[in-house]
Design a protein that fits this description.
Blueprint: E1 6-12, E2 34-38, E3 41-49, E4 53-58, H1 67-75, E5 85-93, E6 96-103, E7 107-109, H2 113-125, E8 133-138, E9 141-148, E10 153-159
Parallel strand pairs: 4-5, 6-8
Antiparallel strand pairs: 1-10, 2-3, 3-4, 5-6, 6-7, 8-9, 9-10
């Protein structure tokens, strides 16, 4: 029997409007899978915020990504005028993703509630997972992200001691 204590928090509504993230973006209403050029390589970035700017990028293998170097280059890109945390996402299967996070002040970090939710919502929005729920493997833990699209509210479930923001 699993007696691990968990808690669920609401992160509210995902903010996608470029002027509110903020991200400099003009081609469509939101910055979804938009190409950012960094060191001669094209990265498809989805911009989102739950309080601070984030960019989400899908990769084949998060272990092969230079998270400090590429995260810094993307997070300080001129298209993010206030800098952004960058979440690198690997799809494991239709219910699980793995994520690594670069944060402007901390460098690579194991977890933030926002980073986990950005990873989960991006995977759901781009149909990389099948349901409105996904397990996000970050650091040494697995977090459950649920997106109630009707209410447009995102919930995060994880260990009882997980930091909120």
């Amino acid at each position: 029997m699993n007696t691990t204590v968990k808690r669920t928090i609401s992160l509210g509504k995902p903010v996608m409007a470029p002027c509110l993230v903020p991200v400099k973006h003009k081609s469509t209403p939101n910055c979804i899978n938009d190409p950012f050029m960094v060191n001669g390589e094209c990265w498809k970035v989805t911009a989102m915020s739950f309080g601070s700017p984030h960019g989400a990028v899908f990769v084949d293998d998060v272990d092969s990504v230079d998270v400090p170097g590429t995260g810094s280059a993307l997070g300080t890109h001129s298209l993010f005028p206030e800098k952004a945390s960058i979440v690198f996402i690997q799809v494991l299967d239709k219910e699980n993703i793995r994520a690594r996070l670069w944060h402007p002040e901390k460098g690579e970090t194991d977890f933030t509630a926002e980073g986990a939710c950005v990873a989960g919502v991006t995977a759901m929005m781009l149909h990389r997972v099948l349901t409105g729920e996904v397990n996000v493997h970050m650091g040494r833990n697995v977090y459950r992200v649920e997106w109630d699209r009707g209410a447009d509210e995102v919930f995060l479930t994880g260990p009882a001691d997980m930091p909120e923001m």
